[in-house]
Amino acid sequence: MEDKKYILAIESSCDETSVAVVSLENDLVSNVVASQILSHKRFGGVVPEVASRHHVEQIISCMEEAMTAASVTVEDLEAVAVTEGPGLVGALLIGISAAKAFAWANELPLIPVNHMAGHIYAASYVKPLEFPLMALLVSGGHTELVYMPEHGEYKIIGETRDDAAGEAYDKVGRVLGLEYPSGKEIDELAHQGNDTFNFPRAMIKEDNLDFSFSGLKSAFINTVHNAEQKNETLDRLDLAASFQASVVEVLTKKTLDACGEYPVKQLVVAGGVAANKGLRQGLTDAFTTSFPNVELIIPPLNLCGDNAGMIGAAALVEYKKNHLAGWDLNGNPGLSL
After folding, report:
1. Which residues of 53-126 form beta strands (DSSP E)?
2. Is residue 115 a known part of a binding site?
3. Which stretches does DSSP call E strand in the chain?
4. Annotated binding residue at 335?
5. CA torsion 307→313→319→324, rounded to 10°?
6. What class is the 6-120+304-320 domain?
7. CA dihedral over 279, 132, 203, 170, signed as positive or negative
8. Is 23 within any annotated ligand binding site?
9. Is 141 marked within a binding site?
10. Annotated binding residue 170
11. Separation in Å, CA 127 to CA 121, 267, 296
């Protein structure tokens, strides 16, 4: 029998059912993602009950497909990893239940993983992480600056006081009449328009590393509604460009401030909004000028969204530290780093 060399990783925190096989050398061997976007699109956002039902339908086939694609059997597995939180509690429980059942039946250890840590460790597939590092986490539910002195240690030094950046994108997209999820389309529209509306850059001059996007969202909505009441037509391209310019400037400025306050070797940009071309370019330009010695790492587009590959990468760190879970592992929707 071959030595066990792989971890089976499961992710089901929101609306993506995903299973991956990752080697103990941190090679992503397979990464299956079953998206639910078409089901949720008609509702304009994720419906938790619908998401849970889809996870039930897809989780077993995703596990089988991931192992087949990786050409591994149960005998090749070293452990099973699963997202513990944060996320939708019903969705989390589907993945956890499947992971516990599989691990128990095959006498494998169970590794609990923080979903946000997974987003950070997606960058490890690009280059080995060097410490200390800074991580900018930007997604639909989170906007955080995380300082990491070493593997598996997280210090949140800045976070949003209200809406996350990704949440603001979704709500602005709804006002523009775009289909969910609208982040990619707003990004594309923004590159065709100009920042003519000069929306607010909340907290950009404050002496802290926190964010706020509710004021920007409100300013955008009020601008559109006021124009509608006056039967005025606003340029959608300029609206998108103005909104994105505000988000990118705030995120970039706060991240520069964080790296000035906490000297680091690398900056990791992670989460769904890390796929945004405007943000990628803004950070690249800013750090090339201000911190040329800080290495900027942004995962490829297929690893920015929710996927089990990132959970497997984070699980390797937890496994080496012997951070294992018992059979009483439960979903923790409010889990923090």
Report:
1. 77-85, 110-114
2. yes
3. 6-11, 16-23, 28-35, 77-85, 110-114, 133-138, 143-148, 155-159, 266-270, 295-297
4. no
5. -20
6. alpha beta
7. positive
8. no
9. yes
10. yes
11. 10, 12, 10
In the chain, residues under CATH classification 3.30.420.40 are 6-120+304-320, 131-298
Q: What's this model's pTM, rounded to 2 decimal places?
A: 0.94
172 is in an annotated binding site: no
Sign of the dihedral defined by the CA atoms of residues 299, 301, 305, 309, in that order: negative
Is 139 assigned a ligand-binding role in the annotation?
yes
Say if residues 174 and 220 touch (Cβ distance below 8 Å).
Answer: no
183 is in an annotated binding site: yes
Q: Is 278 annotated as a binding residue?
A: no
Q: What is the pLDDT of residues 59-89, one digit of tens each?
A: 999 999 999 999 999 999 999 999 999 999 9
Structure tokens at 287: 């750090």
Which segments in the chain show pLDDT lower than 70? 1-2, 36
131-298 belongs to which homologous superfamily?
Answer: ATPase, nucleotide binding domain (3.30.420.40)
Per-residue model confidence (pLDDT) at position 1: 36
Is the four-CA dihedral 141, 143, 148, 153 of positive or negative sign?
negative
Helix (H), strand (E), coil (C) string for 124-152: HHCCCCCCCEEEEEECCCCEEEEEECCCC
Place of tokens 């990786």: 70
Supply the pLDDT for residue 109: 98
Distance from C-alpha of 148 to C-alpha of 273, rounded to nearest angstrom: 20
Question: Is the Cα dihedral 306, 276, 290, 141 positive or negative?
Answer: negative
